[in-house]
Amino acid sequence: MSDDHHRELQGVTHTAVSSAASPTLDDLFRRSVSRNPGAIALTDPPNKQRISAQPPLQLNYAAVDRAVSAIAKQFLDAGLPQGSIVALQLPNIVEFPIALLAAIRAGMTVALLPQLWRQSDLTAALTRIGARAFISLGRIELVDHGDLTMNAAAEVFSIRHVFGFGKNLPDGMTPLDIAMDGQTNFEPPKLDPRQPAVVTFDVTPDGLCVVPRNHIQLIAGGLAVMLESGMPSGANILSTMMPTSFGALTCSIMIWLLSGRTLSLHQPVDLQILEQQIAAPHHQVLIAPAPLLLRLAETEAFSRSAGITHAIGLWRTPENASSSADWQSGEASFTDVLLFGEAGLVAARRLTDGSPAPINAGIQTAPRAVPNSRAVGELAITPKGTLALRGVMVPFAAYQRSPNLDASSNEMPAQVDTCYGARLNRTTNTIDITSPPGGIFSVGGYRFLAKDLDEWSKRLGSETMLTALPDQLNGHRLAGRAKDAARVREALGELGLNPLMIDAFRNRAEPA
Fold first, then answer.
1. What is the pTM of this model?
2. Residue 203 and residue 413: Cα distance in Å, rounded?
3. Are the CB atoms for 229 and 347 separated by under 8 Å?
């Protein structure tokens, strides 16, 4: 990273964490548009046609800016008031960041919905947040998301508008088109960086938790990862992460907005397509789940890469990071990003021998190896032996208050308990993450309460079992047993549950 770019990012850090003068996400994007309007901004996955029945696109910054303004104006012309919550459920294609930026430019908050959520999850979440609009796609692979979206929206009283990308949209869904030209007379509202930009969803031992984050918190998270990784100025990024959580959004769209170059997208996970993208000469940074990156390094996929110099790996099971295999690719550096649900993250670049870097207690800086770096967070151990986070990126308002605070007090808690088991080595002042939150199963990017799985198992009948088993790549995998598995799968589908629960009862003789 050049000294000039490093100083610029540190300046963004200072304003982002200190005052309302912080840039917004739209400000970051407009900065890139003004600097390089003809530079490629977004590139679709090569297999987009299969994913969404639409051809893959490659758009420069000027074209993306026009599309963002046009869609933002369409939202406002539809009568959506500023401050509305707009729900977004899309695959990892260029429409995702464009719709996100358009809603933010229109002064709205974007609720990020996981792609595998079906009607049951969607209606519960949309009702909880009071969403005013829903944006989706006509089809995602084999699933008719147009009908799914309309059915979910029909059950939520607050939703007044349903928008969709793609062709053959159902009646009642208003089409969005990224080829539309922006209106020259469109004046976007002035944005307050302290207001929520996105809403994500977490599962804590107490149940579903709605987590709003403002522009300042998102920028702080992106800077923590970007500075620690040491990625070069203006690097082109290839991301496999579905940006429907804080960690994945931070490590894809936020880093793109901060770096101001090209973001190439991959819909997870088609290994053949991914290896083709890795081999392309124009990517310098690869962002993917850490276990997947370690497997790719073992197969020498990076030796066939013409340009990857930095790999950023996300751990949704941070308790497994310290015991993971050493990074074996000399062609690229590796940065571990430990995700603690939606509470926050910790980034640590690997040591020169490829082993995971120790995580120290106390103030976290980025980059850690540079003296006098700016603080990006703080780690501590709670009296009950769990990890607590403090810092600008941490959304204190979303989580429970500290027990010693009066319920009527406006004072915010000093830290958020992640509920991850942790142990402090007092000799080295390092922290070991020992266990995940009790009673929660993590399946890739999805978290389930153990009691909810038990409840569904009981509802399905006395001869039915649904449980979570350890999985090296995803943390857990769901497994089910039933006397009539086909009937159970059909019943779960009719109830609108997500495919992870339905596929737990698939015939094991069939391919996954």
1. 0.90
2. 20
3. yes
156 by DSSP, 3-state: which?
coil
SS3 at position 171: coil
What average pLDDT score do residues 198-203 get?
A: 94
Q: How far apart are CA 215 and CA 237, in angstroms?
A: 21
CA dihedral 179, 198, 223, 284 (to 10 degrees): -40
Question: What domains does the chain contain, in order, with CATH numbers?
Answer: 3-349 (3.40.50.12780), 360-399+414-435 (no CATH), 440-505 (3.30.300.30)
Tokens representing residue 44 in the block: 């679709």
Paired with 467 in beta bridges are: 479
362: which 2 tokens?
Answer: 């106390």
> What is the pLDDT confidence band of residue 187, given thresholds at 50, 70 and 90?
confident
Backbone torsions φ then ψ of 114, nearest 5 degrees: -55, 145
- Integer Cα distance of 420 and 417 in angstroms: 8
Q: Is 281 exposed, middle or buried (0-12, 13-18, 19+ CB in 10 A)?
A: exposed
Sheet containing strand 237-239, edge to edge, reads: 58-60, 40-43, 263-265, 237-239, 285-289, 310-315, 333-340, 344-349
pLDDT single digits (tens) 201-233:
998 888 889 999 999 999 999 999 999 999 988
Tokens of 273: 């397509």
- How far from 428 is each of 215, 359, 386, 431, 432, CA to CA, in Å? 35, 10, 18, 9, 11
User: How far is Cα 396 from Cα 495, in angstroms, rounded to an integer?
Assistant: 34
Query: Residue 68: which H helix or E strand, with range?
Result: helix 61-77
- The distance in angstroms from the start CA to the end CA of the chain is 42
Using CA atoms, how far apart are residues 452 and 164, in angstroms rounded to an integer? 32
**pLDDT for the residue 280:** 84
